[in-house]
Every structure is written in C-alpha cells, then in structure tokens.
Design goal:
It is built from 45 helices and 24 strands. It is elongated and about 135 Å long. It has a 6-stranded mixed β-sheet with strand order 4-5-6-3-7-8, sandwiched between helices. The protein has a 6-stranded mixed β-sheet with strand order 13-19-20-11-21-22, with helices on both faces. The longest helix has 23 residues. The chain starts with a helix and ends with a helix. About 3% of the residues have low confidence. By secondary structure, it is an alpha/beta fold. 45% of the residues lie in helices and 15% in strands. Helix 11 runs parallel beside helix 15, helix 20 packs across helix 21 and helix 28 packs across helix 29.
Length: 1032
Amino acid sequence: MSLEEAFSNLTIDGAASVVEKIAAEGVKSFPIDVLIAKAASTEEAEALAGLTTVKAIAESGNLVSEVFFKECLPAAIQQSGSKSKDVRALAGETSIAICKNISPFAMKALLPAIFAELPVEKKWQTRSAALDCIAVFKETAPKQLSDALPEIVPEVTACMWDTKKQVKTAATAAMTAALDVIGNKDIEHMTANILVAITKPKEVPEIMHKMAGVTFVQSVESPALAMVVPLLLRGLREKATSTKRQSAVIINNMSKLVDNPLDAAPFLPLLLPELEKNASSISDPEARGVTENAVAQLQRLQDLANKAVNIRGDTSKLEAEFVKAMGDDTNKKVVTHASIIASTMMDLGFMEDVQWTKNVAPFFAAFIDASKAEAGVEAVRVEAEKMMEIPEEDDEDEDAEELCNCQFTLAYGTKILLHNTKMRLKRGLRYGLLGGNDSGKTTLMRSIANNQVEGFPDVTEVRTVFVEADIQGEQSHLSCVDYVLVDEKIQSLNISREEVTKVLASVGFTPDGKAKPNHAVSTLSGGWRMKLALARAMLQKADILLLDEPTNHLDVINVAWVKNYLNSLKDVTSIIVSHDSGLLNDCCTNILQIENLKLNAFKGNLDEFVKLKPSARAYFSLKGSKLKFSFPQPGPIEGVKSKGKALMKMSKCTFTYPGNDSPTLFDISVQVSLSSRVACIGENGAGKSTMIKLLVGEIEPQEGEVWKHPNARIAYVAQHAFHHIEKHLDKTPNEYIRWRYANQGEDKESLVKVTLQFTEEELKLQKTPYQITFTDEETGKITKVKKVVSELVGGRKVNKSKDYEYEVKYAGSSVDSGEYLPAKTLKKMGWDKAMKAVDLKIAQRAGLYVRPLSTKNVEEHLNGCGLAPEFGTHYRMSALSGGQKVKVVIAAAMWNQPHIVILDEPTNYLDRESLGALASAIETFDGGVVIISHNNEFCNQLCPETWVMDAGHLETKGDSDWMLKQDERIAEQEQITEVVDAAGNVTKLKAQKKKLSKKEEKQLVKKLKKKIKEGEPLDSDEEEFAIEKDLI
C-alpha cells in the first residue's frame, strides 16, 4: 500500500504504521494535501485520525518530514475552534507538537500560518491557540524567536487589548516569552515595564522616565527595537506633553544607534504617523521642535531603508542559488524550506560549513546523493557569505602587539555618544582622546573599565586601570597608605603595605614632605590627590592605563613628572583625556577623536593632528572657541562709587589647620574690588585654596582680620566643585537652582559657613545685659536701660551718620520691637556674625530683583553658562558629564548676580571651547574676578595681577597700578533697563538719575520755577524733583 493510500484510509490506531512507512520509504512522494484535508475535516473521526497522524509524524524525529508536516499547522490551529471537545483538545496538542519539533532555524516558516489566525474576526479559541504556539518558541528556538521579534511584537500587541480574557491571557504569555529572549543586557530588565505600559497606560509616564535613564553600550538591533516600540507608542499617545517629548527624544536618539536601517524598517510605519501627528498638534514650541527633529531622523532612516539592498532573510536569492547548485528538478517545497533555514542562519551569523552541513544538507540528501547535497549546500553557503560581506578599510600592519580590536556602540541615557564605531589599540602606544564636552570621553573610559564595551577584552585578560582623582567621602578619613590598600584591585594582587609605602615615596609621599603617607587623604590638595591616584595605578601594573585629566590641579613641576612617567611606560598602553595641549604634544603617539558619533584614529601628536584637521584647534586654543557664555552683570552697590574701591579685604591673616604644628598661611594681606582681575598661582599644597577659603569666610584665621562689604554678593566655585551638588543629583540643574534660591533669593549654600557660626565667647556676650542709651526725639530726654538682644529680625537702615543700624528683638519680648541698634553697639554685644548674615541675605535678595526665579528664566541663565535647555531642564544632574556639572555649579553661583567671582581651578573639567567661552565671559564681566589655576594661558589672557603663593607666604606681581587704571565711575556702567517677571512679562525701568551738582541743581530749580509760573506742563522727572524741593 502506497503512502497516499495509507493517508486516504487513516485511522487513529494507524498513525504509528504510517510513521514507520515514512521512515522506510522516505518522503519523495509525500501526499501532504490528503493529510491536510483529513486534519481539517469537519467529521470528528477523520479529524481525530488526521490530527493524530500529524502529531505522530511531528514527534517521530524524522527531520526531513518537517518540510511537509509544517503545512498542517493552519488546520490544527483552526480545529481548536471545533464543536467536538476531543478534536479541540487534540488540535491544541498537535499545534504545539508541530512548533516544538520543527528545527529551530525553520521557526520562521510557521509564522505566516500563526499570524493568519490572529485577526479579531477569527474565533477566540483559534486566536488563543495561535498565541500559545508563539510562547513555545522561547524554549525550542530562543535565538530564532529573538530574530523574529520585529514581526511578532506588532501582531501580539494587538491581541493584548482583546476583550476576550482567554485571548488577552494567551497574548500576555506570548509577549512575555518573546521579551525574555531579547538578548540585549542594557534593556532586558525593562521587560516587565513594557508589559505594564501596554496594559496599564497610567504607568507610562513613570516607565518612560526609567527608559530615559538606560545607558546603551550594545548596538541596538531589531529585537531591542521590537521591545521598546510598544512603550514608545504609548508615550507618544499620552496626553502629557512632557511624556510625548520624552518619547520623541528616545526615538530620535535610539534611531541614531541603528546600524542597519533595515532593522528599523518594520517599526517606521508605526512610529512615524504618531510622531507626525504630535509634531502638528503639540502647542509647546520647544517640545514640538524636539518632535520635529525625531520625525526628520526617522524619515532619514526611512530613506536609507528604502535604498538599502535587503540581503538578510531574502529567500528568493537563496532559492535561485539552491536550484543552481542542486538542479532544476529539485523538489520545490524542499528548496523553499531550505532557503528559510539558510536565511535565518545568515541573520544570526551561523555561517560555518559544519553548521550548514548539519542543518541544511539532510533535506536535499533525501532526494539526491548525500555527497552531492553537501557539496551543493557548501556552494550556496559560499555565495551567502559574499552577500553578507561589508568592505573593510585597509589597516596598516604594525609590529606592536594588538590589545584590542573591537566595534561597538555607546550611549549615556538618551544621548548617543558613539555609534557602531571601531577601536584598535596597540601595546606601548599613548592615545590622546579628543572631543568636546559631553562627547563621551569619560563615559567611554569608564565603560571600558567596567567591562561594558562590546568586544573589548575582559579586564582580567588585559589589565585595565581607570585613573581619576575623586575620593569617595566614606574613605576620606583614611591615611594615604590605607586608602590605597582598601582598593579591591590592590587587595586582589596581594600587595603589601611596605610596597605601597615605597611606591608612594617614589612620587613624593614622605614623612618629611608636603604630603605625608600616614596623614588622611582629606588633607591633600587637588594636585596631591591626583598623584595618589597615579601611585595606586602604578601598583596595579596595568596593560592599559585610562587617564582622565591626569594633570588636573598639578603645578608645572608635577606636570613634568607625569609626562616623564607616561613616556617611560614602553609596554603599557595609555588613553589620555586632557585639555593640556603640552601633555598631548609631549606624550601622545596617536590621537583618537570623537566626532559625529565615530571614533577616528590619527597617527602623531596633537600638532600633527591639527595639521590634518585645523578645525580641532579649538581643543587647545582659547581664542579658537566659537562657543559663547554670558554672565549676568552685577549692578551697582549702595555706597560704592568707584570700581577700584575694595569690597573684600584680608589684613595680616595667619592660619593653622587643627592638628598641624606650623601655620599654612603667614601674614597674608590682599584686597579685591569690582575691577580686580587676579590670578592666584603656586605649587601644589602652597596654600592657595586655604587663602581663598579665608577670604570667602569658609574658615576663620587665628590672627588678622577678614572684611567684606555688607552689600557685596560673592560667588565662590570651590576646587572640588561637585560638593555643591552631590546631595542633589536627583534634581535637574533647573530644579537645583530654584531650590537653592527659593527663599526670597537667599542662597542656601552660603548659610552654613564656619564664619557665621557663633563662638562660645560670642554667645556669652549675647546673654550679658548691655546698657543702651535712648533719646526721645520730642523732649530730648535721655534714658539708659540694660537689655539683652535675643535675635536680629532682618531689617537694616542707614542712620544720620551713614552707619548701618539693624532691627532687633529683645529677650523676653513676644513681638518684634521695631527698634534698631547701631552696628558698633551690636558688635560689642556679640552680634557681629549675625549682622553679616543679615547683610548677606539683603545682598542676595537684591540680586533677585531683576530676574524672578522662574523655570524659563533659570533655563535661559543655564543656557548662557553653556548648558543647553535639553540638559539644563530635562536631565537629572546624575546623568551629566563632569564638564556639564561644572557649568551647573558656575551657573548656580552666578544666579544672584555677584559682584565678585572667585574660581578655584575652574579649568579642570572644561574643554578648550568651554574654557574659551568662560574667558570671554569673564572679560566682559563688570565685577571682580579671582582665579586659582595652573593653566597659564587662561590666567595670562585675563589677569594683569598675580598672587604668587609659596609655602604659605604671598607675593603680589604684575600691574601694581591696576586699581588706579580701573578707577571708573560706577555711574558709567550699563544700567538695567528692563525686568522680566515669572510669566515672561517685560517691564521697562527708568534709568538711575544722575546726581546733580549744586550748580546744576540751582539751574534746574530756576528753570522749573519759570515753567510753573508760566503754566507749562512738567514731565514726570521734573514733577518729582519739584515736589522734592517744595516748588509745587
């Protein structure tokens, strides 16, 4: 009996014999149409016999038979809706058997049949059975399922909102299974959120926020895109403009990470219409602009996809190759099936000859000679490899050992930094890494150190050490030796305390030196912290040193030491991020430049690189900067008519740190005015930062006096600038500035200074009754009373002697007295620091007048300090780069329009372009500036006066007549002409009136008397003057 006759006379009990017959006779004459008809029959007995036979064949292990039994899947799924309970149950088992037993690479051959049963007009039982089939592939074909997600996710997503509970449950299970095989470590933790976003729209805004914080280091391919598209679609359809905007930003950035535009092609028809709809309907101009950018990016991707030749998964080309290799008479069903398997293997990179022989050749061996089948499959595999070839750039052969040759993609949050770029490193070479602020230099090095760069050798194979000077707060109490020893990498190398002490001594940490090995790291200046980090790296005997600004805080002597050390490392590869052009010229053998999301490699040092790319001059030339910063002008100070008048003074100040035997500073006297442009220089540990802390009131001198004009506003950006924002990293820069100045313009960061805290002696004076003399203005009677002041209320006025008086509250009084006491009296009563606090608050509030603390005003201010609105208003500070954080700190300090700006090492984290912009802003700033920096070019461009600090002693150099030359009248400054309120309304202000001389005043009185007598109208200024002089 033939196989066709056996199929025609099928019974439930005869399935086993049919399987045996197929095994004996082969599949050359496989009457599949007869078997399909039996399985799809409406007659219960025939259907049961057909389904039983299909299930038995599928489970028989006969590989070649899958060419035919896969065609029974539609019938099996449809029978899930049969009226017969037995048929329904068997149909489900048969469908699952087909999906479980088909070879993994043939999985895609079943998808059309499954998708055909998912439309809403189909029976719910049929739809549920089809969805159950998809869930099976998670176990049997996980890689192939991941590859097919672009096709599967849209189909399944539509079913997750079905009104039928069974369909919804099956769809959720299928989606969960599909998302479990995503294969992208960066976002696989978001799978649960994706499901929630599809079924619970209210959760979308929070989930979008989580998505925005994902750092991508793997290339984003079609499976990852398939996963996030449902979430992005939900975000685009949200009512809140902020969520729509966030979705557009993520789409825009992720689309830039797509290497092959064909990966994105299946999703473009879903995303583009929603984006275009938002671009035309969002009312907020900024959010609309962001959305329009995303539309333009996807349209660009669409154009690339339309032009691209789709080789992946193109079965037509493979079918032609198989017919050519096997002969025209080859079974067409076998050719089609083999082409689907081969295309999936191409998609997944299974291109070895043994893999093709194992997975493809058996299908042809059932019809032709096995050796011919294998030869034919090998010929097709070779052609398939040619289809996949991408021409590579020629690379010069070098003798040096290759440490790394990888291709990767890198992003931080929603910002793409490097996209599908190559990096090749050779042993013993020193690479200078160039790129603007926010281009990703530090992120790249940190990702290498954390084993997050795709294809980069594991740090255990190629020992990689990241050198940075930041010291964690919880380790700051440790001694220098212990700080090195607690490092996990040092411990894993079993390095002894003696060896650590020896290496520290080699870089200058000696018991009798400026930096002592057994002193706490918190006592180290910035330069010595960097030397400590370098010493720790030396102990680890690295193959690759990753150096982030290694000369930050270092003086000339120590910079030379770093250069000599790096040049002596003949077998160690270095990647150096630095804004020090001398270091890059003297040390680098190669340059790596981040530009347009690519890492471009060049031979030679910085000078050689600039010859090839003149536009890169901005990296190390301040004048080459095209970026512009703008600082708010300080405005006038009550009682100060000259720009040369001192606003801050230190007189004969000596300071010793607690626990030290000798002073850090000796007999220091300096002063600062509105016209000051001072560079403070000196060796590491000479006392520069200590002097500045004395000047701004962060510490108190043991001898000498520090004075500040009561109305002067001071901005101080410390050497370790990030300490200002460390507790606020969950805020955006905009939120941080609004928090910091929220209390009527008072700066919360300035209210915690040591110099504003009372000593025990001052507290004792405050509690001691003090004799106060009162004079009755009407009777002239003098009364003397002993009183105790409990607090200063906050008011201040000028008395007839032009001295300040402060509003006080007396002890025992439940209400404010409304009485004022002179500053001289209050100082004797122990309230000197409280008066300074009142002065500080009043000065800070004065700075709030021109610009109310609105989101829009703060955003514009941040933009003026070099931080674009995207990062200033929409990014949390935890996601910002070092350079961006410095801009936040500078912008926050400048918000209340200070009269004096003090910058301690402002050049450390800023790139050359930002540094040039900062220099330009300082040049046009009308207030005083004091800069501590080791950057000679920066100081020389800005500062005519220099304070040279040497071992605690100060010497002033430069233009000694700078105050006299800058003695300009403040009345000549550009005055404020308008005020913008929180709602954006602009109010024009009158210019301050010029003070008239006695002669001018007499002439004006005469003129006005005449106009009044003749009945001529007076303008508002004349009328005000006439009232003041009692003329009308």
